[in-house]
Backbone:
C-alpha cells in the first residue's frame, strides 16, 4: 500500500491557462475526495466520488472547475482559465466504506497563478 | 449551514504539559468526526476517527471524545513533546457534507 499520490506536487501557471492535476488513491478505496486549502485556513471541500460517480459537488466550485474519475481509480481535477484567486494547495483523499470512510490524504499539489 | 469551529486558533505550551484541543460542530446528523495533524507545507495525517455511535477513541498518547448532544469533540494529547508541534484539524462528516474546522496551531516549547 503506497498511500495516496498526487501529481504534480507544484504547478506555476499564468493567469488564463488551463491546468490539470492527478490523484491516485489507495488501491481498492472506493471514495475519492478533492479539497482546496489556502494559507492559514482549514481545507475546503470541493467534490467527491464513489467509484466513478460524482456524488457531491460544493457550490463553491465554479464552472471553471471539473473533476473526473473515469474508471473508478485515479481522478483528475481541471481548472480552466485560471485566476490568481485559484492559487492554493489542492488536496486529494481516499477512503473505504469498510473503514468507516476514514480519509487518507495525499501530499497535495501547490498551484501558483501569476 | 454546517459550521465547524476550532478554538483557540493557536496554542503554546511547555513540553510535558497535556494538550486539550476543541472542535465544535453544528450539524447534529454527524456520521463521524476525524482528527488530523498537518505539518507546514505538507498533507494531512489521520490521527483518530470517531464514529457517531462512539464516545471516544484512543491511540497511544492521544484520546478523542465525541459529545453529539453538545456538538463538541475534544482531542487530548498527554505529556506533549516538541515533535507534537503542528496544526491540528477536525473534519465533520454529516451525510454528503464534509466540513473542516480552521485548525489549532500548536507549539510545544522545549
Residues:
Amino acid at each position: 500500500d503506497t498511500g495516496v499520490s498526487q501529481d504534480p506536487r507544484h504547478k506555476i501557471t499564468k493567469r488564463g491557462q488551463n491546468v490539470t492535476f492527478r490523484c491516485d488513491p489507495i488501491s481498492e478505496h472506493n471514495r475519492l475526495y478533492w479539497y482546496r486549502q489556502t494559507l492559514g485556513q482549514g481545507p475546503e471541500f470541493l467534490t467527491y466520488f464513489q467509484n466513478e460517480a460524482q456524488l457531491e459537488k460544493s457550490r463553491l466550485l465554479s464552472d471553471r472547475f471539473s473533476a473526473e474519475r473515469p474508471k473508478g481509480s485515479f481522478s483528475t481535477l481541471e481548472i480552466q482559465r485560471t485566476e490568481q484567486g485559484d492559487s492554493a494547495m489542492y488536496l486529494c483523499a481516499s477512503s473505504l466504506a469498510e473503514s468507516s470512510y476514514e480519509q487518507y490524504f495525499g501530499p497535495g499539489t501547490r498551484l501558483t497563478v501569476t | 449551514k454546517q459550521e465547524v469551529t476550532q478554538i483557540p486558533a493557536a496554542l503554546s505550551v511547555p513540553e510535558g504539559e497535556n494538550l486539550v484541543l476543541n472542535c465544535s460542530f453544528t450539524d447534529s446528523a454527524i456520521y463521524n468526526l476525524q482528527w488530523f495533524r498537518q505539518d507546514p507545507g505538507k498533507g494531512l495525517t489521520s490521527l483518530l476517527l470517531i464514529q457517531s455511535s462512539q464516545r471516544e477513541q484512543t491511540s497511544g498518547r492521544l484520546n478523542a471524545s465525541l459529545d453529539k448532544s453538545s456538538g463538541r469533540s475534544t482531542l487530548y494529547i498527554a505529556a506533549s513533546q516538541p515533535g507534537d508541534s503542528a496544526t491540528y484539524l477536525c473534519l465533520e462528516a454529516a451525510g454528503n457534507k464534509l466540513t473542516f474546522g480552521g485548525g489549532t496551531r500548536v507549539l510545544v516549547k522545549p
Summary: The first strand of chain A starts at residue 5 and ends at 7.
